[in-house]
Amino acid sequence: MITLDGVSVRFGAYTQIDYKQLLFESGQSVAILGGSGCGKSTLLNLISGIISPLCGDITVDGTVISSLSQAQKDAFRIRNIGFIFQDFKLLEKMSVEDNLNVLSLEGVNVKDSGQILAKLGIAHKLKARASTLSGGEKQRVAIARALVKHPSIVLADEPTGNLNYAIGEQVIIQLLDACKGKTLLCVTHDERLCPMFDRVLRLEEYASIKEANIHA
Amino acid sequence: MLKFAIKNLLTKKARMALVALSIIISASVALMAFNVSSQVQDGILNSFIYYDLIIGPSGSSTQLAMNTLFFTDSPLGTIPYSLVEELENSPLVNRVVPFTMGDSFNSSKVVGTSPLFLEDKTVKSGKLFSAPFEAVVGSSVASSYGLNVGDEIITSHGLSHGGAQHSASPLKVVGILKTTYTAYDDTVFTSVETVWEMHEHEEEEEAENAPVQTEAGTNSAPSHHGGSLTASSTASEEQVESHTGEVCAILVKTASLNAYTKLSQSYSGQTGLMSINPSAVLREVLDRVDLSAKIVYALSAVILLMNLIVVCVITLLNLISSRDEIQLMRLIGISARRVRQVFMIQNAILGAAATLLSLLLSHVALLFVNNISRAYGIVLNPFKLYPLELLIVLAVMLISVFPTILFISLLARKDALTK
Asked: Taking CB atoms and an 8 Å limit, are B415 and A101 in contact across chains?
């Protein structure tokens, strides 16, 4: 289970996002919708510990990650959270295999990578350089990297943002299939994909943005 | 981690090649400068100065010492051989060795002396010369020209290559010296009598071939053969040649300190003659070499400092261009410590490979430098490795890794989204 309680985050001196209390049940798939700049990606970054809140508590599966040090957050993320980015975030000059093996730097067992790639239909691309893959293939590699460590939580930040609808739909189907039993929070702009998720969260109802000189 | 670091390193070939090139150039120059300087110094220090007195024509004492001990420079001129006979009969001396020089074999100098001169050297094959027109060659001469015992060599008139050849009087190689890494390696040794006879042959040929020429004693040439008892004049700049009854210098081992003093005073007092103590002269030369060694060390330090700056700049640029990669790794949960380790391993591999290659290159370059330095009597051993060279290698390796430690710590410490 993931909970956010009284969480605010600030960017520079002018923008602050305040989140209302939020709760995500374990094993649920949630589509997070919202306009640009409403704090969707920020929400995922907070939950994963990539950024720290100004105030409030973020609890992930019993761990108050907002109180952890940066090193502890890194360790928590590598063990428990799979993160999928809109722009894939792959080591472009390295192979698909290397992009998965990079996790072994932190002691993650990546022995299931072949199986996961096969499930996503790109096992034959194992030795291919990431830069030579299509957008859809790259996103599948990013999904495989997120899943290879068998995380309990998967955060996907607009995973279909750089793909056309047909490929995007396929990717979401595969993602949902691969994430069965896990908590999946998926940020998307595409309402057509929402019916596939257990729950749809419209973030505007849970987050307010202040844009002013806060110190003024 | 090592495997990943190497794979990742290979994705940045161009940038890494730049860093490696910068390290290789600076480290090779520093290592070679240090090695050459040390070998030159060692060469002088290792030259066993058995003789305590050298008698030669008056002039530069350094030139006389360098010419007789290292076969560099031209001889000062000639002195009568009768002085050798006089000294041999003196109770004040233990050993007398004549020394003459004026011919060459390709770029190697030909020294006319007695077998005693080579007594402390080991003959690798063959024997020392004993009969006229027999020669012993240094190891470099033998290897450079593929000479074996029994081969014949034709020497040329003059110390530089290109003089008239003594075709009528070839020398037979009867011995090859073991490598000494001194000027002996690049020298041909024969008897004084052989040198005289070669010149006599040549003069006879010239006399036969030349039209009637009655010009007497041309300008600055040394005194003519015939065993004049007076010391010859200063040698011409062009050539010094020992005619029959003349030598360029005499090396003497005196019987005692008292004998040394007496002989030194006696020969220095004679017109046109000079006697020197080679140890004293070489000590003076060494002081100069010491200074040049210090300059070489200072230059090496400057080069290494430049290397540090260049490596810093390239590493910083490299890390800036790797910023996205670092951010990516941080985003997926790789800790700052691991990111730092990956980049440090990469730079350590690069630094180690580049410095070891520099060490190899500097010694390969010594082979070529040796070809030039040999002409000046300095024979370098390309395989000679000084412990300090390994220290330089270690220092360069550290210099290569240092900028990474500095910059990657600054970059990786930031949170994953901060550029």
From this structure: no
B281 is a domain residue: no
Task: For residue B183, give Cα distances in angstroms to A41, B33, B72, B376, B378.
Answer: 77, 20, 9, 8, 6
* Domain region containing B31: 2-44+286-413
Search chain B and give the residue with CA nearest A41: B417
Alpha helices in B80-231 (DSSP H): 82-88, 139-145, 192-209
**What pLDDT digit, counting tens, does each position of B136-151 carry?**
999 999 999 999 999 9
pLDDT tens column, B153-164: 999 888 776 677
Of the candidates B4, B328, B333, which has its C-beta nearest A74's C-beta?
B333
The residues spanned by each domain of chain A are 26-52+66-201
Nearest to A93 among B1, B11, B330 (CB): B11
ipTM greater than cut 0.90 = no
Q: What is the 3-state secondary structure (H, E, C) of B235-253?
A: CCCCCCCCCCCEECEEEEE
| Same structural domain, B328 and B235 | no
**Residues A51, B328: C-beta atoms closer than 8 Å:** no
Q: Which residues pair with B110 in a beta bridge?
A: B103, B188
Q: Hey, what amino acid is at A77?
A: R
Check: CB of residue B84 under 8 Å from CB of residue B96: yes
A71 Cα to chain B: minimum distance (Å) = 7
Residue A91: burial class (beta carbons within 10 Å; 0-12, 13-18, 19+): buried
Please indicate, yes or no, if residue B62 is contained in any of the structural domains.
yes
Asked if residues B6 and B305 have their Cβ atoms less than 8 Å apart, the reply is no
Give the best residue of B12, B332, B415 to mutate against chain A (max A CB count within 10 A).
B332
Number of domains in chain B: 2
Q: What is the 3-state secondary structure (H, E, C) of B180-224?
A: CCCHHHHEEEEEHHHHHHHHHHHHHHHHHHCCCCCCCCCCCCCCC
The fold of A26-52+66-201 is Rossmann fold (3.40.50)
Q: Distance (Å, rounded) from C-alpha B371 to C-alpha B366?
A: 9
Q: What's residue B417's pLDDT?
A: 54
Residue B419 lies in a domain: no
Residue B278 sits at φ, ψ, to 5 deg, of -60, -35
